[in-house]
Amino acid sequence: MIVVPGSSNRLFAYRLARSLNATYVETEISKFPDGETHIRIPKVDEEAIVLQSLCHNPDKYLMEFLIICDALWGKGCKHITGVLPYLAYARQDSEFTPGEAVSLLGVARVIEKFCDDVITVDMHLHRYKSIDEVFTQGKNVSAAGAVGKYLKKRDLKDPTVIGPDEESEQWARQISAEIGCEWDVFTKERLSPEEIRLMPKAADVGGRDVVIFDDIISTGGTMAEAIRAVKKLGAKRVIAACTHAILAGTAQTKIFDAGAESIIASDTVPSPFSYVSAVPPIVEAITFKRNG
Ligand code: R5P
To answer: Going by CA atoms, what residue is nearest to atom 7 of ligand 1?
Structure first.
């Protein structure tokens, strides 16, 4: 088995290959003078994992992914698993205003034409119950357990876990189970891509260390609001944690300005805060599938 990366997250692909005892193939990816993508894959096998996180420059990375898969099929590959640790476009899963494209479904249809099955990590599944409503052969795993295990080793005093919206309950529960503490969630209303309104309940955070966990930190607006809310309620130290640290624009400074002590993220998106690896749950999913 080979693991073939696009250019978005080669380290993740390398870690995955090592954990699976598979061969990591160093793809050569460059641009032609006119901006087209040029890719060379120096080694091919019958079974391949194509690894690409659709972060930061999703359209570019999606194109690389498709070109790599197509090239592998042309070179005799018999089975391709697409591993997309961060799946972009998942938040545009509905026609929120008339005429909008439901990008998630369009992107999913293209991806699954190029590979046999798809694995994602903490895919933003807020309005869908399961990944099965998006991909025919899809598996969504979570990094929240690994984040919880990491946080358990930190010196947290009387900790509690808060999710900034109702959808984050699933992760708040998992993390609190690992740490062995309470959890709660707030209610959120999105006013625009950059603006949200949080309705914090009177969560029991006074004098405690608080972990706020969300699937994605993108502009940092949600996280910063949640930090301010728990601080107002008397929280002591606040740790901002997430699976996908997109950290667009000034997200980092927004979060620290709001009063976070640190940011903890998984490695689905490369960032200076990627202390936790999401490779193990993916390995588990692949191993489970291979063993039937
Ligand atoms: C939305 O429902 C997600 O779970 C995150 O809360 C959201 O994507 C975070 O975005 P931002 O950092 O831009 O507020």
So the answer is: 216
